[in-house]
Amino acid sequence: MGCCDASATKCCSSTSDVREQVRDGYAKVAQTGRLATVTKAGRCCSASTHSADALAQQIGYSAEQIRNLPEGANMGLSCGNPTAIAALQPGQIVLDLGSGGGFDVFLAGPKVGNTGRVIGVDMTPEMLTKARRNIASYRQSTGLDNVEFRLGEIEHLPVADASVDVVISNCVINLSPDKPQVWREIARVLKPGGRVAVSDMALLRPLPPQVAQMVEALVGCVAGAVLLEEYRRLVLAAGLAEVSLRPKPEYVAALAEFKDPLYAKIARALPPGTSVGDFITSVDVVAAKV
After folding, report:
1. Percent of the chain, pLDDT > 70?
2. pTM attached to this predicted model
3. Is 143 within a domain?
């Protein structure tokens, strides 16, 4: 499987093929703590306990936030901190796309309090099992009963129209084989005046074909990414406004520092004199429904 054009919104493989490969990759993460194709990595779309906490701190999470999470919720899958950029308030309804083990859901819950609610949506049953298992620990530590996890695809959200105040997501949208549909769904579920604040991966320039065709690069949140200008166009085309994209190169720099195996493999496939950071960046994306 591979993408014929790394700057396109869809890969040449069928949508179902891409989705199943991503689902299979994340199922392995939930079950084993890492992707089968990668070892000892703490990065977007794979995980290891030895570096997941360190990576989270480098991209904006505090040690206290991480320490108070239910066990296993942080699997090193983040590329930013959407709960921070979302500036969540008590009483808000929050939706987390691709919620995984519940990392950002459990962090968002105390911010919205007992009058708010946080809904996590994930298409991988194994991730939902992991997240739901941790709800009891979350309730015990916070005294709150305001989080839930639903099975569903981010292209077809199991959420009512105009029912959400804030949509967050962490390094997931780039994996979708139909990104325009994801952004249309975000616009659909947001209330008028609602906001979206996501952390994601994007391209600064097109990836070489040999990188875009690597299966593990897709599941590693790289080959599915689109160019920054294309990302902005997708958000605007969905009908959202006040769009801001802020690149965060420190995430890719952290992966280089941690000697992440996937990113090392990508670096070897790049043209001489270039680095992964010349092509790929984490990005904070915010927008509003007017």
Report:
1. 71
2. 0.80
3. yes
